[in-house]
Amino acid sequence: PPASCGIRTTFSDDLLWLPLFAAEYVATTGDQSLWKQQVRFLTAPQLPPGEVEKFLTPEDSGETGSVYEHCCRSLDRGLTTGRHGLPLMGSGDWNDGMNRVGHAGSGESVWLGFFIDYILERMLPVCRQFNDNQRLEKYQAYRKQLRDSLNDAGWDGAWYRRAFFDDGTPLGSASSDECQIDALVQAWAVMSNAAPPKRAKAAMAEAERRLVDKQAGLIRLLDPPFDQMSSDPGYIKGYVPGVRENGGQYTHGVLWFIRAMAELGQGGRAADLLEMISPISHGATNETAKVYKTEPYVVAADVYSQPPHVGRGGWSWYTGSAGWMWRVAVESILGVRLEGGDTLRVDPRISAEWPHCQICYRLADGVTCYEITIENPNGKQLGVTAATLDGQPAKVEEAAAYIPLVQDGQRHAVTVTL
After folding, report:
1. Residue 228: CB partners within 8 Å, gap ≥ 6?
2. Are 55 and 4 in contact (CB under 8 A)?
């Protein structure tokens, strides 16, 4: 660990990323031994009442546990419940600028509910694998109650709410003065599969209608921005309206919106939106470059959405957003994912107007290459009907192709047909 680190014990989602990353690692690599690896625990004093965070040096607790135990402890701490049956928000969730929505201990996060559901989907099989029946039953019961609450209190009538303040006032609602709709929660409603399909599509359509600015080439994280609203959401309100998370295009979050669009099967729209927000598009002409003002070859954390700076790039060279832009392009639209360490799953969600596209997947030896051509003769957005590997039929199951990988220093030709 670093010599010092900020311990934010009331941030509701910080610890919950651990089980998600572990589960994704195992699914990608097939390395089940990760769950049993022993890792030490750190310890630090609990924060006193009224103190939200503290910069300190944690100490070695003298205790170790498996990665599985670490992940379960994270879940055990994170599965909270508020008055609406939703997880407590604490002093912020993914959007840490909303640090006063639930800082008194009663506010709830709708987004966090969808995020936890997504994690539980991946951790429940691991609990079965370890015969951890007590946790399995606990997590299953929590998930059932959570889904009911998400689709009851979390639903605003046309889209999903973002949160509830400590006093129970909804945020991200048509009745809100500001931040009536938030892209993040609509995206994770789709990605988690916790929203009924009809609602998920309706919520995404409303978010697209209200948050996508085609003329400026950006997608707002939320709208309208915080400015004068009486309830205090936190330091997000200290940003000028339209800047960073406060109603600007916060690229990390809106990339999940594009990912969700692809998962709905709307590959053409997902591809168009990804191209629209690409920094390359913002530097395509002298006129757009003069508006954007930041580098067209790296990803900016945010793009301003309000006059007089509509379309201007903010904090550039933002690696977290760049990583997600890559994943959305490769995994969501081109549909290429590594599974089990030795298989490529190819399930494209592309534009119906693309006649074909290609990917070169290079293995770790730097030599072995799988040249994948996706053929789209019938103008489809998804649905693999046939695949070949070096001229021989390859496995196709549930409209996706499965390509076995061999690190042999050769070039291999893969054709996938929609």
Report:
1. 177, 178
2. yes
